[in-house]
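Need tokens for this chain, all 461 residues.
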Amino acid sequence: MNAPPRQISLEEWTARHAELKGRGLVEPWYGGPLHRHVETGGDLRLRHLRFDNSAAALRLWNFLLSEEDRLRESRAAGKKLVGAMKDLGTVPVMAYASARLVAFYPDGAWWIPCVMEFSDGLLRAADALGIDESFCPVRALLGAFLTEAHFPRPDLLTCSVGATCDDFSAIAQRLEALGHRILWWEMPHRRRPSTNESAIELPGGFTAPQAQVSFVRGELERVRRKLAELAGEPLEDAALAAGIRAANHVRSLLKQLRHQVFSAPICPLPALEMLIAEMLALHFCSDREETGRVLEALIDTVRRRCDLQEGALAADAARIFWVNPVADLRAMNALEECGGRICGTEYLFCHALDAIPEHLPPLEALARIALADPMAGSAADRAARVCADMRAWDAEALIISRIPGASHCAWEGQVIRHQVELRLGRPVLEIEVPCVCDALLPTLRSRMKALVETVRRRRAR
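Here are the structure tokens for all 461 residues:
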């Protein structure tokens, strides 16, 4: 059933799916040909993407694109839905500690205008509510809540506020004004402890004062009580500890996958599939156990390709570290078409990939992982982690993808760029990728090609 790795179009995937089925491929209930997501789901952007040709990649894409079905099935089964906004990897861990709850991120609506190539009308709906293009594309979630066409209305909405994206805070407040009650919990700006304060080391290498950790723990206690009320059962420490262990299992699988892919001499899995795999750590795509199985299939595929010294891209591809998720997934394909490969990422949720401490009381551990959010601290802290990870993965250059309208993108790119050039002496490219980047693709390709050529000239020195 294994074929030499390569990237194929949606049309080619139709024939590839038939071939795999003919050879005995057994799919999960959400399986099937990828083209159905265009025909029945309106996911038009798939027609312009290139996909890895493995059965594991097929399972990954189908898992991602069938999340709405899982959410509606969970509601039909009597489970309560928790919409966790802006915390990226904290509240879902708590929610999945109860078998009666399912968590998801309404924030994911920010990719709908890309995936549906604006046919969804979500940005127009946001415009009508006074949230225009001067805001981050996450404003699409306003339209998603209005139409209820992309996910069911949650039974509980939570939102991290404070040291988070200003755009998101404004958008969430507009959402609450529309009648959607939100349980707000505060995230303080992470600062370095002063000399007379007790310092706590956080996952990922940052530090914070004990007072801040204690404050966030108190905020998460409020969230715990509300989740327990929604579930109709106590959310005891033992259940939270079990939930943390299950989340860490997913994170350990992602750690294996990232190590295998980023350290391989020839790229065994392309950038789009890696981006989606990393996203699974946030809320398990509404099925924690299946997330583990999807990642295990990817790891097996990558391990086999590495053993055979096979890759989906050229052996001399430039090793690029990528910062920030792109509004248009097509940009990741474009980098590979220009001769690059991804070797390291920081998609704004690196703390959701770090192991949650299991030796601490659960809420203490979750408070520490929440404070490790790169968005909660300074751009200098974030730049330091990017530099450390670039060294670890031997990345030869950096791409910073600014998110259109995002308040946090105004200056942080310059800070990260300066630190990477100063500490590592490696070339940096800053780009801005709109929700659909077709008109800008020639320019983006030219700039990416120039970066790849710079890497190759540096190799020749």
